[in-house]
Specification:
The complex is a heterodimer of chains A (269) and B (261). Chain A is an all-alpha fold. Helices cover 81% and strands 0% of the residues of chain A. Chain A has one domain: MetI-like (MetI-like fold), CATH 1.10.3720.10. The radius of gyration of chain A is 23 Å and the shape is globular. About 6% of the residues of chain B have low confidence. Classes of the chains: A mainly alpha (269), B alpha/beta (261).
Chain lengths: 269, 261
């Protein structure tokens, strides 16, 4: 017993070993954001935020990231269900493939997309025969976002589906439910919030996509110039525009992440 | 005050140079240069290093407007070589460059580039206005993007007053620097782009359409040491090399014109 108390005392003396590094790294996260807010707060802030370029970029970002998120749900949910429930021989390789876009630098993603689906790309030349040309279109923005952001949704949906009690599934099986009924009546209601928080993560990532987009989709106001792109170019033209847009993007991300945390907490309770 | 400091720095450096430090201890020179100078300056840098074995030259190549912003935001550089006088003037106005130290060291002009197989069948400047072709330009903030738009204004007089509007309607992307325009054309993703003649020399696999001198925009490139450079003597030496016969010969080899011509 006395030994225990001594150890605890020692621990409390050494608490700074934990606190100091934590404060340092938290400062690194916080200070740049503080600087952006302080430098952007001036009389022209709202002029910048409501300028035509900024509104165009905001609209394009919201529309494309929403399409990306919906596509991720439509294509990713069945895949996550398969990964969670079916026995597949090379499943770990599939999972690696899905994790890869998260680990890859976006510039690699953009280059790969261009080499694959560009007009002269490996598969793009076939698309070209059908009159489809992806680069420099809004569709290319969505594809770039889907490539980098959809894996986040698929990952959390897979975890959600895996967490469902197997006995529940067996019971539904005995009741005579087919796969689709089981998916709709049992799995979806039980995992709804996990799926939603995964979707929001994908949405946040899609909103921030830059590297793959600038390579694959180019930069044209109202067509492919999303907010991160407008911020990058604003940095060179007018720092005020870049800072104002950065503040908007920070705020939108905070709101989306807060919702995600809320959902995750409800899920746990 | 800054002028005084730079004068002091210059004097002390002059003294140091007399002491022969330039040929002994290892030193680093940082040059911020317009993206269009990439190949020529890389070669000039190598030659300069050979002539000064203790010096390592490192380059930051990007759009001049991006470099200007980086310098304004405190990036430490010794020499700035810009593709347009406008970016240099901004730095002079902010006392980051001394007005009298900025000199024009080369001229460049525009040319139309096409992928080798010319998928849109473009044979003349007028064809750029054909609706449906895909044109890639540098953004208006980038010097070459600004020069291209100046050239279109001149072309309006020859090809009809809506020529510029028709071309701009064909633009599918505003790239961040001139090398991005070259890359998009090399990949064949777009049908035509407008770059400097020097870029067309560097990318010899591309087709080109010359722009007559009366319709062309002449880019004058200024170079200057930065006031806050910690290596003012090296910066001066590098600039002197750029102006030397050897330096100018390298620039001409890469498709630039000497300013005196």
């Amino acid at each position: 017993m006395t030994w225990h108390i001594a150890t605890l005392k020692k621990l409390s003396d050494s608490k700074w070993i934990f606190i100091l590094p934590s404060v340092f790294i938290l400062g690194l996260f916080l200070l740049p954001l503080v600087a952006v807010f302080i430098r952007s707060l001036n009389a022209e802030f709202f002029d910048y935020v409501f300028s035509e370029q900024a509104l165009d970029a905001l609209k394009l970002s919201l529309v494309t990231s929403a399409i990306t998120t919906i596509s991720a749900i439509l294509f990713g949910t069945p895949l996550a269900y398969i990964l969670a429930n079916w026995k597949l021989k090379y499943k770990s390789w599939l999972e690696l493939l899905i994790d890869l876009p998260i680990a890859l630098p976006p510039s690699v993603a953009g280059l790969a997309l261009l080499i694959a689906f560009g007009r002269r790309g490996l598969f793009g030349s076939t698309l070209d025969m059908f009159g489809i040309s992806l680069p420099f279109t809004t569709a290319a923005v969505v594809i770039a976002q889907l490539f980098v952001a959809a894996p986040l949704y698929i990952r959390s949906a897979r975890v959600g589906f895996s967490g469902i009690d197997k006995q529940l599934e067996e019971a539904a099986n005995v009741e005579g439910a087919n796969r689709w009924q089981m998916f709709r009546e049992v799995m979806l209601p039980l995992t709804g919030k996990t799926l939603l928080s995964g979707a929001i993560l994908t949405w946040t990532r899609a909103l921030g996509e830059f590297g793959a987009t600038i390579l694959f989709a180019g930069n044209l106001e109202g067509v492919t110039q999303t907010m991160p792109m407008a911020i990058y170019l604003g940095f060179e033209r007018d720092l005020g525009v870049a800072l104002a847009l950065a503040v908007v993007l920070v705020l939108v991300s905070v709101v989306l992440l807060a919702i995600t945390r809320r959902l995750e907490k409800q899920e746990r309770d | 005050m800054k002028r005084l400091l730079s004068l002091l720095a210059f004097l002390s450096v002059g003294l140091a140079a007399c002491g022969g430090s330039m040929n002994s201890e290892p030193r680093a020179l940082t040059v911020f240069a317009a993206a269009s100078l990439t190949d020529a300056f890389a070669e000039i840098g190598e030659n300069f290093q050979q002539a000064n074995p203790n010096v390592t030259v490192s380059f930051n190549f990007a759009g001049s407007q991006a470099l200007r912003t980086q310098i304004e935001e405190g990036a430490s550089a010794d020499v700035f070589a810009s593709a347009s006088g406008k970016e240099m003037e901004v730095l002079i106005a902010n006392s980051l460059v001394a007005k009298e130290s900025s000199q024009i060291f080369l001229n460049n002009k525009l040319v139309v580039i096409l992928p080798a197989d010319n998928p849109a069948g473009i044979d003349s400047l007028e064809d750029l206005a054909t609706s449906g072709i895909k044109i890639v330009l540098a953004a208006e903030e980038v010097p070459v993007g600004r020069y291209a738009r100046d050239a279109f204004d001149k072309m309006n007089a020859s090809f009809g007053s809506d020529f510029k509007d028709k071309i701009l309607a064909n633009v599918v992307s505003h790239e961040d620097n001139v090398k991005q325009v070259v890359a998009k054309i090399q990949l064949g993703e777009a049908d035509a782009g407008i770059v400097y003649t020097s870029d067309a020399v560097a990318a010899s696999d591309l087709r080109t359409i010359e722009i007559p001198i009366e319709l062309n925009a002449i880019a004058e490139y200024p170079i200057a040491p930065l006031v806050e450079s910690a290596h003012a003597d090296l910066a001066e030496a590098f600039i002197a090399y750029v102006f030397s016969h050897k330096g100018q010969a390298i620039l001409q080899k890469w498709g630039f014109d000497s300013p005196l011509q």
